[in-house]
Write a structure and sequence with these properties.
Blueprint (H helix, E strand, L loop, with lengths): L13 H14 L3 H5 L19 E2 L2 H15 L10 E2 L11 H38 L2 H7 L6 H12 L3 H15 L10 H17 L6 H11 L4 H11 L3 H5 L5 H20 L16 H9 L43 H13 L1 H41 L1
Antiparallel strand pairs: 1-2
Length: 395
């Protein structure tokens, strides 16, 4: 059984701790005992009472009786060894056939009950250990009295720390209001901020204190106004999820995942240095047009344009198609990992939209042509330098 790390110290901890405790109790099959719907085996099952079984006439008794019969009548009379006699059998071989079958059945039941009792005791000990490790010492000391069973201790903790419906709603509403407080500056970890917001809105939805999708979308947009590129991303993304917002089917998880991915892409591009090629780098054989062609092949940042376009036609993320990493993965920085959902969406669009597929193919061919031009330029420059060196040597 895995040990839970959830600590129970206040009312705000109860829901998470209770779910963890219930999961463990169900795993070891004693949750019904905790609830009181099933009786606990309070002591080990008693051994079988041999007085309940009938003793049979044994071979020795039969032989002696046969001897007495012979001496009286002059002839041997067969005796039934299964006839009951007075006395208590010490083992099953001294029982009649019927009692022997009953004894074996009772013995099997006893062994099963012994096993059940042992497993139940072990499960209870594990849960007692869990309670001691996860309940704050002061809370445990306050609600446990010597002699209390695990069931009694759980009931006392529930009565003291379990929140009412109104208390849960108030706490969820407070956490949500705190999560959507407008940022004064960009947080140190925007990903952690988004995770906190997602947990708060999810809890508010569960406790039925959250606004509808239109409401929490507006709250989120207001909270990130201090980060222009994030706010612009949300405004443009709204064009793609308008139907889900209006029908209240948009989930915070989808928005949180999109925000974190787009933010990571934007920050990676901001830190990516531009590659520039100075004029004359490859000698006098290159004219201005050749140099410009080579320079245009250098990587470009996928900068935000603050609402000047509605997103990439392929992946629906906030950048232009020519710099889409899903269509042109060679542009992505080292270590970038594509999102499976976005990659599937791109593949579906390229399969269904023939014009988009032709455009991507044409742009990929153009990029490959520029790479070939680059390679030829480097080789030509190398050859030119070698010829110049030979001419100088001959002079």
């Amino acid at each position: 059984m895995a040990t839970s790390t959830q600590l129970l110290s206040t009312k705000s901890d109860w829901d998470a701790w209770q779910k963890s405790f219930e999961l463990e109790a169900r795993t070891v099959e004693i949750w019904d005992i905790i609830l009181g719907t099933e009786e606990r085996l309070s002591k080990p099952p008693a051994e079988l009472d041999m007085r309940r079984y009938t003793k049979r006439r044994g071979p020795t008794t039969a032989a002696a009786h046969a001897t007495r019969s012979t001496s009286v009548s002059g002839s041997a009379t067969p005796q039934n060894e299964d006839n009951p006699v007075d006395g208590i059998p010490t083992h099953e071989m001294e029982m009649t056939i019927a009692s022997r079958e009953s004894y074996r059945y009772d013995k099997r039941r006893l062994e099963l009950r012994k096993k059940e009792y042992k497993e139940q005791q072990q499960a209870i000990q594990k849960l007692v250990k869990l309670v001691r490790e996860t309940v704050a010492p002061d809370v445990f000391a306050l609600h446990y009295k010597s002699g209390d069973s695990l069931k009694d201790t759980y009931k006392k903790l529930e009565q003291a720390l379990a929140m009412t419906v109104m208390e849960k709603m108030a706490m969820s509403r407070q956490a949500y209001q705190l999560a959507i407080t407008p940022l004064k500056k960009e947080p140190r970890s925007f990903t952690d901020w988004v995770d906190t917001w997602e947990k708060a809105i999810d809890k508010a939805i569960i406790d039925k204190v959250a606004p509808n999708a239109m409401g929490w979308w507006s709250d989120l947009l207001q909270a990130v106004q201090v980060i222009p590129e994030v706010a612009s991303t949300l405004r443009n993304y709204r064009l793609h999820v308008r139907n889900e917002i209006e029908s209240n089917t948009l989930t915070p998880r989808v928005v949180a995942s999109y925000l974190k991915e787009e933010y990571a892409i934007a920050r990676a591009l901001t830190k990516q240095p531009a590659v520039r090629i100075a004029k004359g780098s490859f000698g006098p054989t290159f004219n201005n047009s050749d140099t410009e062609a080579l320079s245009s092949a250098s990587p470009r940042k996928r900068a935000y344009t603050h609402g000047k376009h509605s997103g990439c036609r392929a992946c629906s993320l906030y950048h232009e198609l020519p710099v889409c990493w899903y269509c042109f993965p060679e542009l992505a920085p080292d270590g970038w990992k594509p999102n499976d959902e976005v990659a599937k969406r791109v593949n579906d669009k390229l399969r269904d939209d023939k014009s988009l597929a032709r455009e991507v193919k044409a742009k990929r061919r153009t990029k490959n042509d520029k790479k070939v031009s680059w390679a030829k330029g480097k080789q030509l420059a190398t050859n030119t330098k070698e010829v110049s060196s030979l001419e100088q040597a001959e002079e």
